[in-house]
Every structure is written in structure tokens, then in C-alpha cells.
Write a structure and sequence with these properties.
Blueprint (H helix, E strand, L loop, with lengths): L8 E4 L3 H12 L4 E4 L3 H11 L3 E3 L2 H7 L2 E4 L3 H10 L1 H4 L3 E4 L4 E3 L5 E3 L7 H7 L6 E4 L6 H6 L9 E6 L5 H9 L4 E6 L4 H4 L17 H7 L1
This protein binds NADP nicotinamide-adenine-dinucleotide phosphate.
């Protein structure tokens, strides 16, 4: 039986966030399966990361993993849920997505309703028996890399899920990324930890925080 420390993690999507998460896990001695729609990209990254990283096709990665990090843009998550629905059943899915798209001014606009969250929308599309946590998306990719394993006090990463049975697994995943986990609540709190939310680096929070600071905000 898999425990929070032995659960197998797969990352689908090897862009900014996917690569940082893979790097963070390897630095903390946690193995990871890396996958993208382009297998060569996964093979190249795995070769750079070393023996703890295993490249795979998306299907094989999902099949082998207990935890699937969907490190793709918000709109692509829906496609992945649809295309790999059978394989995703029963898996723990980590959603770092922010529901935004570039605008003509060089910034980003929210692409769903003002009071909607990607977490709640993705929860409504979830494959049968899968469990969703909103996590690993509350910092920009640069901070997710630079603030990992911060000393003397770890930086906080917020997460939200409706399933308290997966809390320990999510918290271990966050610790193995080099951060301290802080539960913000159920998925109805997702909006707070997505871009423009009050607990996001690119929202009212505006920076990385320690656990003590994080707890004053929730
Ligand atoms: N960047 C940040 O600072 C940041 C911070 C917090 C959260 N996030 C969130 O994290 C997610 C990923 O962002 P990112 O900046 O890492 O994006 P990115 O650099 O554009 O990377 C996305 C990756 O996903 C792959 N991909 C796209 N559609 C796919 C599909 N259907 N199946 C498999 N792979 C697919 C892309 O492959 P191709 O190269 O083939 O297109 C690319 O490798 C987004 O939801 C974003 O909102 C980003």
C-alpha cells in the first residue's frame, strides 16, 4: 500500500511549473514520472534530472502514478480529464491552474466569472472516483523555484481540497517540493489561492510568506 511518502507522482505538462515541480522533487530525493504530449521533451528533461526522473507517455504516466499533477493551462485540464478519463479514475489530481489568458496590454485577464474558481470548475469535471486538490499554483514559477527549501524557515504553500483523507499526501507532496503546507479549506476556497486571490503571490498576498504569516491571513 502506498503511503504519503511512497505514492508515485506524475507530472503532465513540462512547461514552467511542471519543470520547477520536477526539479524541486528531485532535489528533495523524491522520484517523479515526467510526461508531456511530446515524449521527447519528457526524455530530455528526465536525462537532465537524473535517475529519480522517469520519462513516460501521458497514458503510462497516469497509469503508474497515484498522484497526477496537471501542470497545463486551465483549458487543457478539461481536455486531459476527457481524454484520459478512464485512467484518471481513483487518482489524486493536483491542479495548479489559474483561469487566465494573456490580454492585449501584455497582462492577464481572468477567463471565467469573477466569482468562479478553476478549482470548483475542475472539480465539477473530475473523472469518477478521482480526488482533487488545488495546490502548487499559489506562487509564480520563479518563486516556486527560488523559495524552495528556504532556510531557516520554509515558505508556505497553500492548498485546498474537499477530501480530508488526502491531506497528508498533499502535505507530503508540498514538503517534498521544499515548502511548508498550509490548508486553506475546501475547494470552495480555491478562488483565494488562484491568481488575483487574497492568498496568491500575484494577488493581495503579493509575496512568499512563512507559515506563521500565512496563518494570520486565513
Ligand atoms: N507560470 C507560472 O508562473 C504559474 C504559476 C502558478 C500557476 N501556473 C499554472 O500552471 C499551469 C502551467 O503553467 P505554465 O506556465 O507551466 O505553462 P507552460 O509553460 O505553457 O507549460 C504548459 C505545458 O503543458 C503542455 N501541454 C499543453 N496542453 C497539453 C495537453 N493537452 N496535454 C499535455 N500537455 C499539454 C505544454 O506543451 P506544449 O509545449 O506542447 O504546448 C507545455 O509543456 C497553468 O494552468 C498556469 O496557470 C503557472
Amino acid at each position: 500500500m502506498q503511503t504519503p511518502t511512497t505514492s508515485k507522482i506524475a507530472i503532465i505538462g513540462l512547461g514552467n511549473i511542471g519543470q520547477v515541480v520536477a526539479n524541486n522533487l528531485i532535489k528533495n530525493n523524491r522520484g517523479v514520472i515526467v510526461a508531456d504530449r511530446n515524449l521527447e521533451k519528457a526524455q530530455t528533461l528526465a536525462a537532465q534530472l537524473g535517475d529519480l526522473a522517469q520519462p513516460a507517455t501521458i497514458s503510462d504516466a497516469i497509469r503508474e502514478a497515484d498522484i497526477v499533477v496537471v501542470a497545463v493551462w486551465f483549458a487543457a485540464i478539461k481536455e486531459i480529464f476527457y481524454q484520459y478519463e478512464a485512467l484518471l479514475q481513483g487518482k489524486i489530481i493536483i491542479d495548479p491552474s489559474n483561469p487566465i489568458a494573456p490580454n492585449a496590454q501584455g497582462g492577464f485577464d481572468k477567463i471565467i466569472g469573477e466569482n468562479e474558481s478553476a478549482g470548483q470548475i475542475n472539480a465539477s469535471l473530475l473523472p469518477k472516483g478521482a480526488k482533487l486538490a488545488k495546490a502548487l499554483g499559489t506562487l509564480g514559477a520563479a518563486s516556486l523555484a527560488n523559495a524552495a527549501n528556504q532556510q531557516p524557515e520554509a515558505a508556505a504553500l497553500f492548498y485546498a481540497t474537499d477530501d480530508i483523507n488526502i491531506d497528508e499526501t498533499i502535505e507530503q507532496l508540498i514538503r517534498d517540493n521544499g515548502f511548508a503546507p498550509v490548508r486553506v479549506g475546501g475547494l470552495d476556497q480555491s478562488i483565494r489561492i488562484e491568481v488575483f486571490g487574497d492568498l496568491h503571490e500575484f494577488g493581495a498576498l503579493g509575496k512568499t510568506v512563512t507559515v506563521a504569516e500565512a496563518k494570520t491571513k486565513i
